[in-house]
Design brief:
Blueprint lengths: L1 E2 L3 E6 L3 H4 L3 H4 L14 E4 L18 H4 L5 E4 L4 E4 L30 E4 L3 E6 L12 E7 L7 E5 L4 E6 L9 E8 L6 E5 L17 E8 L4
Antiparallel strand pairs: 1-2, 2-11, 3-13, 4-7, 5-6, 7-12, 8-11, 8-13, 9-10, 9-12
């Protein structure tokens, strides 16, 4: 962990130790219901997403504000979002996009992963869970798989300005995990922008190309 006068920053090439005790970072876990609890945290692990909203289908960008209220809405300059399929339903770990991907990616919490399609970038905006009222959060973190090279990062914004950008730790090799999380001590974040790898999903990974997808998200309770 690295502390500054404005934020605490955790970056690890193995997320298991930290995510075993997330209350040290953002407080107690709140239930997935509408309304803001004012403190604590929310989490997304993708595994409860219905098959109808998982690969090969798209996931609605507001699923985790409407269907399962956690207070986040996604956006991308790509073609949408996808949660990987459960085994026995469709190819796992985005093998529906490229049959080599299950040999590159791995899971932190069984058995699904998440990605933007047609882009390596996505934004996460905060709302009072279950509403269209903009909100802010004290921090945000995510688990990434197959971060082989520099470039995977999270940028943090308040309502108007960028507060900071941090790189996700590199964990060379296939089927590896990395974690990055930042909690702000003074500012509040209204949005984060995630860059995953240096290429969008679709092609085979080769020299100079780093394909990265995501597992669990953790963030401070969205408050108005």
């Amino acid at each position: 962990m690295r502390w500054t006068n404005t934020c605490s920053h955790i970056g690890r090439s193995s997320p298991s130790g930290f995510l075993g005790r997330p209350e040290f970072f953002l407080g107690a876990l709140n239930p997935n219901v509408a309304g803001s609890f004012g403190s604590g945290r929310r989490e997304i692990n993708w595994d409860g997403v219905p098959d109808a909203f998982a690969a090969p289908n798209l996931q609605p960008p507001d699923f985790f504000n409407v269907n399962s209220p956690r207070g986040v809405v996604f956006a991308t300059n790509g073609s949408g979002f996808q949660v990987s399929a459960n085994a026995g339903v469709a190819p796992i770990e985005f093998d529906n996009i490229n049959p080599t991907y299950s040999s590159l990616f791995t899971i932190f919490s069984p058995q699904r992963l998440f990605t933007a399609l047609g882009s390596k970038r996505l934004t996460v905006r905060f709302f009072v869970p279950g509403s269209t009222t903009p909100a802010t959060s004290s921090g945000f973190g995510g688990v990434f798989t197959d971060v082989d090279r520099p470039g995977t990062k999270i940028a943090y914004f308040n309502a108007g300005d960028k507060l900071a950008t941090f790189g996700v730790p590199i964990s060379p090799g296939s089927e590896t995990l990395s974690f990055l999380g930042v909690r702000f001590l003074e500012d509040r974040i209204a949005m984060v922008r995630i860059t995953s790898g240096n290429s969008r999903l679709g092609p085979n990974e080769r020299r100079g190309r780093d394909l990265v997808v995501m597992d669990d998200f953790i963030f401070g309770e969205p408050t108005p």
